[in-house]
Write a structure and sequence with these properties.
The chain is mainly α. The chain is 68% helix and 0% strand. It has 2 helices and no strands. Helix 1 runs antiparallel to helix 2. The longest helix has 46 residues. The radius of gyration is 22 Å and the shape is rod-shaped. Belongs to the EARLY FLOWERING 4 family. InterPro entries: EARLY_FLOWERING_4, EARLY_FLOWERING_4_dom. It is found in: Nucleus. Pfam families: Elf4. Keywords: Biological rhythms, Nucleus.
């Protein structure tokens, strides 16, 4: 933990733009990644609405456009899966690094309230 009580994120623990660097706290990395996921999911909602409208209209141009929209949607879903995978691995590495540091530090002694 750092001096402010946050878990420091190990260097190289996140990949693909998750933003981890020396001294970056895990909550900051999680917030950034979840923000990116939220943005993609909101865009997917718009894509799905347009796909539905095109499907209902049965307009040839709209149905043709749906091919590209569905491909984009599929790409976005794959990106969300990758982001969650990266987050999972980063979180696991962070916990493992903290556990290793705690183990290396040895057992903690109980605090004495006597002065």
């Amino acid at each position: 933990m750092d001096e402010n009580g946050g878990q420091a994120f190990p260097s190289g623990a996140a990949s693909n733009g998750a933003g981890a660097a020396n001294g970056v706290k895990l909550p900051q990395v999680l917030q950034q990644s979840f923000g990116e996921v939220q943005g993609i999911l909101e865009h997917n909602r718009v894509l799905i609405q347009e796909i539905s409208q095109n499907q209902e209209s049965r307009d040839a141009d709209g149905l043709t456009r749906n091919v590209a929209l569905i491909r984009e949607l599929n790409t976005n879903i794959a990106r969300v899966v990758d982001l969650y995978s990266d987050l999972s691995g980063s979180f696991a590495r962070s916990v493992a690094a903290k556990n290793a540091a705690d183990k290396a530090a040895g057992p903690k002694r109980p605090r004495s309230n006597e002065q």
